[in-house]
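pasting for ref
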Amino acid sequence: MNWSELLYQYGIGGIFFLVTLVMCLRLGAADMAIPSDRRTVWISVFGFFAYLGAHTGWILLASR
């Protein structure tokens, strides 16, 4: 995997993730006033960035 693949994977994937998250919030499938829904949203956002960070680190280690 190289940088262009990472940008494509997380750029396009991030757009789909963001659109889906906004749709869930606007349509009422997730309500930020409910603690369990709020926790699920934050875990999902954290997970996206955690995978992005892990893959970025993997690329950095492999390029040495």
